[in-house]
Amino acid sequence: MLNSAISKQLFIMLLLLMFISLGLLAVLEGPVDIALTNVLTIIQAEFFNVSDSIIKWQQNIIIDVRLPRVLIAMFAGASLALCGLVMQGMFRNPLASPSVLGVSSGASLGAVIAIYFGFSLLSAWIIPLFAFIGAGISLSIVYRIASNQGQTNIATLLLAGVAISALNVAATSLLLALSLSNWDVARMIIYWTMGGLDGRTWDHVLIILPVVFSGFILLLFYSKPLDLLLLGEQHALSVGVDVKRTRRNLLIITTAMVGASVSVVGGIGFIGLVVPHILRLILGPSHRYLLPACLFGGAITLIGADLFLSLFFKNSAIPLGVVTAALGAPFFLFLLIKQRVVIN
Amino acid sequence: MVNETINKQQETKPLLSGKALSFAYDINTQISDINVDCFAGEFIGLIGANGAGKSTLLKLLLGLLNVKKGTVEVNGKILKKLKRREIAKQIAFVPQSFELPFAFTVEEIVLMGRNPYLGPFQLASSKDKEIANQAIQTTDIAHLQQRKVNQLSGGEKQRVIIARALAQQCECILLDEPIASLDICHQFETLDLIKTLTQQGKLAITAIHDLNLAARYCSRLILLGKDNQGKICIVGDGSPEQVLNKQNLKDCFNIEADIIIQGQYIQLDNIKPIQRIN
């Protein structure tokens, strides 16, 4: 663990650098080679309305295919990592994460309901809205069941999360099975539940970007209360944190962020669990450093996973969630074992 | 001593008071109609058997639990109407159970006591740090200052939490069995420390199991027990001499003891449990 404030700040700067360079790399990487200078002119042209010496097909690929993909990967990864961080802090539990607490599956169920009943045809915002409602209902049920008299029982919280998750997954499968008679709807549901980053457009960017960005800004206001909540509800209350209100606000923020990212990229597990953990082991428990670190760390992880797939498994359709889990889980186990050695 | 207390009550307004407090966890734990006035400079020991409602009463006075009926007032203001930040400037709390599994340093934890005075992005100023440092010196944990709290022993953690409460600079400090996990030396030191604070004009209310230490240190004892309907009520309230009598010991603790006078305070000796007759 890094101890001095300067080393922590340096580490975050390092993450920022990695974030920028991976982002650039991801824009460069693809089936056709487009030179870095061309990429830069195209991006410059797009944002500053200069249109000289641009090759049209390259512009289309960069602007309409690669850039949205990279931006969505960034914001979805950041959102999942931030939500995991906040949930772990809020519930004082290292195992809490959007997927473990049933929030991701709730968001999926909400979205599938919207598709099944045809609401999704009305507007592009219907799926995110339903995903948000689904995530919110799941999380509030889990939270209500687990908390009594201002105390949250951690084992109950996790068990309730697992149960609600199972229920959500079952309901999603049921809707899919029912929709098979109507192939158009079924195809949409299947396509949507597969998740991932393929075929994502600027519409998706517009859904995820404002939610995650404003969510992050709001979370910054809660970095102190989150530190205090780590010590327990009674401690937080006794030093002046309005625990109920803080929890409620944090739940709304994280639910919106999970809803937005799930509705755009589907359920991608393990980022919300592993990234905050790894960063906490490096930076310590203070949220002042962890919040920006998770923003960059989550983004780096998802862009990295996507790059990894497109570099090494070009022609096989491996879901992104498989990569994040396959890379994240062993690293996480390694850190756990290492930590155990230090303590003993 | 008794007269002194009465005089004080007539002179000054209570710092912290509960009026007709009612509360219920479940059928077995019901509090009804408890009235209590606490004054600056008092060191109040909250005594009673397990499950007698000591922690519950403390949490009601602090607003951690919401009263069903009645009001809690701090400095003449109704607690319910105050924001948690405002309450945290008036009342500090040392909880009974705490796990500190996260790697904050001792200094960081103590500085958290300054939270009610700081805005969301405001960092601790040198004055805040000085106040925290003083609290660290007072509680004898200066040698632990840069250590991680998750590596400390139970007693060390307890002192860190007391230091954090001191850093809040409140008029009232409520403690839920602060000496339960301390070794004998630190039990005395902690109670000495609280006593010094009360002599400086603060109010301390502590739940405490050790009746002899309570009799020795506290200026006033509040004994909680159950009335004939099984509801929690105040059985005795007054100086240790008034509260610790044979009848109360028998009714509330089911013990027999010799009550002896040792210097300025009374002590229990020869304590025996009374055989229960079914």
Account of the 3D structure:
- The complex is a heterodimer of chains A (about 350) and B (about 280).
- Chain A is mainly alpha-helical.
- Chain A has a single domain, classed as ABC transporter involved in vitamin B12 uptake, BtuC, CATH 1.10.3470.
- Chain A has 14 helices and two strands, in the order αααααββααααααααα.
- In chain A, strands 1-2 form a two-stranded antiparallel ribbon.
- In chain A, helix 4 packs parallel to helix 6, helix 8 runs antiparallel to helix 11 and helix 12 runs parallel beside helix 14.
- Chain A starts with a helix and ends with a helix.
- In chain A, about 45% of the residues are buried.
- By secondary structure, chain B is an alpha/beta fold.
- Chain B has a single domain, classed as Rossmann fold, CATH 3.40.50.
- In chain B, the strands form three sheets. In chain B, strands 6-7-8-3-9-10 form a six-stranded mixed sheet, with helices on both faces. A four-stranded antiparallel sheet of chain B has the order 2-1-4-5, covered by helices on one side.
- In chain B, helix 7 links the parallel strand 7 and strand 8.
- The longest helix of chain B is centred in the C-terminal third of the chain and has 16 residues.
- Classes of the chains: A mainly alpha (about 350), B alpha/beta (about 280).
- Chains A and B meet through helix 9 and helix 10 of A and helix 3, strand 6 and helix 6 of B.
The gist of it:
The complex is a heterodimer of chains A (344) and B (278). Chain A is mainly alpha-helical and 344 residues long.
Whole-number mean pLDDT of chain A: 85
- Head-to-tail CA distance between termini of chain A: 16 Å
- Say how many strands of chain A there are: 2
**Rounded Rg of chain A:** 21 Å
Please list the strands of the largest sheet of chain B in the order they lie side by side.
6-7-8-3-9-10
**Number of helical segments of chain A?**
14
> What percentage of residues of chain A falls in helices of 4 or more residues?
over 70%
Quaternary organisation of the protein chains: heterodimer
Largest sheet of chain B: 6 strands, mixed
H and E string of chain A:
HHHHHEEHHHHHHHHH
Secondary-structure content class of chain B? alpha/beta
CATH superfamily of chain B: P-loop containing nucleotide triphosphate hydrolases
Note the run of SSEs of chain B as H and E: HEEEHEEHEHHHEHEHEEHHEE
